[in-house]
Task: structure prediction
Amino acid sequence: MKQSFFKIKENKALTSSVYKMTLEGDTDGISCGQFVNILISGLYLRRPISVCDCENGVLTLLYKVVGKGTEKMSRMSEETLDVLTGLGNGYDVSKAGDAPLLLGGGVGVPPLYMLAKKLIEEGKKVSVILGFNTKDEIFYEDEFKALGADVYVTTADGSYGIKGFVTDAMKNLEYSYTYCCGPEPMLKAVYNASETSGQYSFEERMGCGFGACMGCSCKTKYGNKRICKDGPVLEKEEIIW
Amino acid sequence: MVNTKVNLCGIELDNPVIPASGTFGYGYEFAELYDINCLGTFSFKGTTKEARFGNPTPRIAECEAGMINAVGLQNPGVEKVISQELPKLKKCFNKPVMANVSGFAVEDYAYTCRKLDECDQVGWLEVNISCPNVHGGGMSFGTNPENAAEVTRAVKAVTKKPVIIKLSPNVTDIVSIAKACEDAGADAISLINTLLGMRIDLKTKKPVIANKMGGFSGSAIFPVAVRMVYQVANAVKIPVVGMGGVSSAEDVIEMMLAGATAVEIGAINLINPFAGRDIVNDLPAVMKKYNISNLSDIIGGAK
Result:
């Protein structure tokens, strides 16, 4: 963990509720699947946001406005932010096999971007399924395609791509491993539908975000874990629903 | 040169700054960030006889200038704390540590304290009779003078280490409980634990926290804490350890003027993981600003 100060370079809406914030600062030590914890003026607790991408001192965060903190973030422009980086146990790319499948639901999509980039750099054949409720909520389809991934989009209402959930799109695919991030019902559906081992990224209300307060604990087959420090990524084999 | 040293129950502290139980784990997580030997000491995560997972999640809710937690005393149990956590701490902390103990029966407190009494690393036992998070016990000891005294006597009987009784603010008359603990042999009093609080989510129309209620902490509770420390310090002869919303070196000094011999810092550790170090570093300059050369001289100075 590191405390750094980041300057906002860009903060724009991708959909009616999802925003993209680009920041400049010290990105050393940040790996895919981790999150950052941002101090927001006027609010007591920091806000944990997953890392979408980071490279050469540029940090990209995609976040959905769901409450006071993210609402304040959406109105920020050229501020400098106090950010704790390098938080959490991210994705382990060494287990991917030749053809990993990445599944993201809604605002669970962002952390898969840096993961896909990394896996493609390593020469893997990467397939990505992005699940949304409806056409207007879709973001980052083109960005994943630009990386060279095979991209499938599902919408629950059928307004774009494959009608249904991410699990409907994975039926006919062959894959060596699964990486997943999204709301818990989606994680559970993928857990049940997938034929391989995998890694699942969870979320929970956090106090500190770095393992001190035990606010986000969960039970696993390997003992009690803190989502912020031992997670957010858990191995399929250890998850207890 | 200013002197930041204070003496807490016969043990000298380099400074009065003590990260509070539940906000600092067993110390070693923070030792990765800074040398925690700069602290006066710290109070480790509340420890019970048996291992506890604690309450269901969500356990955390935010408030204006504070937060509510209902962690529910998650800890690995006193045996594992002694066999696993304390050896890890020994590698990064060479001062006496404050052991925080909770229980659900008088015998539980005595059992856990007896075990911790055997640990050389432990300087003080801080006995939490006030945690509002746990059903069926934790609360009641601290809300009634007789029960508070009973726990105090039971713990004093099994240890030679100084016993600090940590009080709940969720009572009608804090002074009567502090006095009962003093009469029962407590070596010091620490206060305040969290205030019982609750938040409700307007979208779901349900409590934010799974346990419904939890302990409210953070800078919002500081004035309540200063008032209670002042009341207790003026009523007992034993030292008082003040806490509740302390977030800066200025707050430490204010708490000491109210009557605190040492000062615990809690929720701020969760927002600024370097808060303990920062407050220790800020103290000398703030002392100079207010013409304080010897910190222990100001204890209870506000009359």
